[in-house]
Design a protein that fits this description.
The structure is a homotetramer. Chain A is mainly alpha-helical. Chain A is 69% helix and 0% strand. The longest helix of chain A has 20 residues. Chain D binds a DNA duplex through helix 3. Chains A, B, C, D: Keywords: DNA-binding.
Chain lengths: 193, 193, 193, 193
DNA sequence: GATGAATGAGCCTTCATTCAT
DNA sequence: AATGAATGAAGGCTCATTCAT
C-alpha cells in the first residue's frame, strides 16, 4: 500500500511529525500509525513505546537541524561564525516549518524525555562552543552562556514564526548582535517602581 | 475535612497550578482534585469541564501577572516605560516561578483555548500600546510589533528560567534595549554559506 | 420563590411528569428538582429515593386516571359499562396526554417497581370486575381476562396516540367490541405457512 | 479464551439481547461486554458507541423478524395475507420471546434512535402494503392506517406476552379480524357520562 | 516482519444521595 | 423544613501495548 521501498522507521517519524504538527500534543499512536500507512501493531516493531517514538522524533529533528547548521569554520572571525549559525538555522527553520514547530512543541510541552533533550543538545556543541569562545574573548556581554544561547534560539524561532522576510531577518540579526555584544552603552537608569 | 474557610475555586486552581508544574501536561482531573483536597466529583461543581478549568487557570495567571505589571505611566519617556514593564514583569515571574512556568506551558502546548488566550491578551493591551507608540515614534528598529513584543516576553522568560540575579537582569535589559533601539549600526556583512 | 401555597410533593410530581414527558427516561433528580423550583436536596425530603419518586408518580397518575374512569354502574348492562369505561378512559387520556404518555413510559420501560404497578392496578379492580362478569356471562370470547383487559388498554392508548377524533373513536370502540364479543363468526381458515 | 470461532459482533449483540431482557434499560456496556465474554474495551472495536450498539441490536431484531414474516403472496386474498402475517409474526415472537421483548423495550423506552427505527420499519413495508390495500378495497373499517397497523402489532405482542396457546391464538386472530373488518354492526349507543 | 483484534487501566464526567448549615 | 456543596461509585469511552496468526 505505502510506497514499497521507503524505510519504515523514517516513514513513521515523518507521519508522526505531520500529525503532531496538525493535531497537537494529544495524538494517539493509532493516529500516527494510520498516517504512516502501517498497522497499529507495526509501529511497535520499530519503537518499543510511544515515548521512544517521541524521543526518536525529537532527536531526529534536532540532528537534522544540526546538520543544516553545520560546524562553524574556526578560521573565520567570531561575528562571521555567529552570523553563519544564524543564517543557516533561520534558513532551515523557514524551510522546515513543521519540523521546527514540532521540535519546539515536544520540548516545551515536556514530551521529549530529558535523555532525548540531552542527546539533541550534543549536536549543537559546536555552535555552543562559538559562544563560549566569544564570551571568553570578551566580545559578548557578561551573561551566562545558557542565557545567551537561549536568546539566539528564541530569536530565530520567533523570526520564523513571525515569517520575517530576508530583509527583516537581516534587521533581526542586528537586534541580536547589537544586543549581545559589548560595544553598546548600558541603558541609563533603573525605573523606579 | 479540608481547611474550612478557603474559597474552593481558588483552592482548586492553586492545586492545578501546582500539579501542572510538577507533573506536566498530562495531569488528570482526579490528580488535581486530590491535590486540592476535594473529591473527584467536587471539582466539577466549580468547573464544568477540564477545559474550563485549564482556561480559568490560564486567565487567572495571566491577569495576576498583568496586575503586577500595571499600567504604564504615559507621563514618562518611552524607555522608562519599557523598563518599567521589564522590571515588574521580571519581578513577578521571579516571585511566581510556578505560575510563570505553567502559563507558558498551557500556552505552548496548546492546552489553553483560543478564547482563553484572547482574554488573557486583553490584559496586556496597555503594555502592547507602549511598543506601538515607540515604534511609531521611530525609537525602535523596523520590525513587526508582534516580533518585538515576543522578544520582550521571551527574554524575560529566559531571564527567569536562567535565574539571573539583579545585576544580570540589568545587563539583560541592556541586551534587549540595545538590540531593539535604532541607535546602533547594523552588523557588517552577511556570512557566505 | 415558587408559588408559596402549593403543596411540595405534588409540585415535585408535576415537575417530574413534565420532564419525563419532554426528556425521556434518563432525567436526573437534579433536573426534576430544578423544574419543580426546589433545591436538589429538598426533593429527598419528600421522596427518600428516586425510585420512590418514580413509583409515587406512577401511582398518582394511575389513581387519577382511575378516578376519572370511576366505578361502573352495576345497574346498567354490560355493554354500557364497557362503553362507559372506554369513553371516560379515552377522554381522560386525551385531556391528559402528558400523564398518559409518562404512565406508559414508566410501565413499559420497567421503571415503575412491581409494587407500584400492583398498587396502580388495584385502582382498576372495579373495571376488571366488569370484564370478569362479562366473561362469566358468556358475552365475551373465551380468552384470558388479562388478555382482554390488555386489549382495551392498548386500543385506548393507541386511539389517543393516533389522535382519533370523536367519530373515529366511536368506530374504534366498534372495533374493540365487535372483536371481543361472541356474536361474530370466526374467521374461516388458518393460512398455510 | 472465548470460543474461538464465534463471530464477535453477533456474539455481542446476543449478549446485549440477553442482558437487556434480564436487567432492563439501564444495563452498562461493561455488563454487556462481560456477558459476551469480551473485555470492556473490545466492545468498542465493534460498536463505536453504546447508541450504535443499541441501534444495531434493534435493527437486527427487527430485520430478523421481518425475515420470519416474509413477503405476502399477492396472489392470495386479503384475509389470507393478513392471516399469514399474523401467524408468522406470532410464531416468531413466541419462539423469540427475548428478542421480541427487547425490541419493544428499545422502541418504547426511546432508546433506539429515530434512524434505527426508520430502518427497522423499512423491513415491514410489504406488510404495511397489505393493510393499505385492504383499506383501499373497503374491507377494513375506516380508521387511519397507523391505527390499524398498531392494533395488529399490539395484539400479537399481547398474545405472546399472555402466552396464548394455538387455540387461543386462533380465537385472538378472530378478535382482531372481526374487529377491523366492516361486516359488523356498529355498537348501539354512546354511554352517557 | 506485519497485522489488527484484544486488553484493561485510566480518563472525564454524571448523578443519586448525604449532611452541615 | 430547606438548602446546595460534597461525595464517590459508576458510566461511556480511549488508548498504549500485547500477541496470536
Amino acid at each position: 500500500m505505502a510506497r514499497p521501498k521507503e524505510h519504515k522507521p523514517e516513514t513513521i517519524l515523518l507521519a508522526a511529525l505531520s500529525v503532531f504538527h496538525e493535531e497537537g500534543v494529544t495524538v494517539s499512536t493509532a493516529r500516527i500509525a494510520k498516517a504512516a500507512g502501517v498497522s497499529n501493531g507495526s509501529l511497535f516493531n520499530y519503537f518499543p513505546t510511544k515515548q521512544a517514538l517521541i524521543d526518536a522524533l525529537y532527536v531526529s529533528i534536532k540532528s537534522e537541524m544540526a546538520a543544516a547548521v553545520g560546524e562553524p569554520d574556526h578560521a573565520k572571525p567570531i561575528e562571521h561564525r555567529v552570523r553563519q549559525i544564524w543564517d543557516r538555522w533561520f534558513e532551515w527553520a523557514r524551510d522546515n516549518r513543521e519540523a521546527h514547530h514540532v521540535m519546539n512543541l515536544l520540548h516545551q510541552a515536556g514530551l521529549a524525555s530529558a535523555d532525548a533533550q540531552a542527546v539533541g543538545n550534543q549536536h549543537f556543541e559546536g555552535s555552543v562552543a562559538v559562544f563560549d569562545e566569544a564570551l571568553a574573548a570578551g566580545v559578548l556581554v557578561d551573561l551566562p552562556i545558557d542565557y545567551l544561547g537561549a536568546l539566539v534560539q528564541q530569536q530565530i524561532d520567533q523570526a520564523v514564526v513571525s515569517e520575517l522576510d530576508d530583509h527583516q531577518a537581516e534587521v533581526a540579526f542586528g537586534v541580536l548582535w547589537n544586543g549581545i555584544t559589548r560595544n553598546s552603552n548600558p541603558p541609563s537608569t533603573k525605573a523606579s517602581q
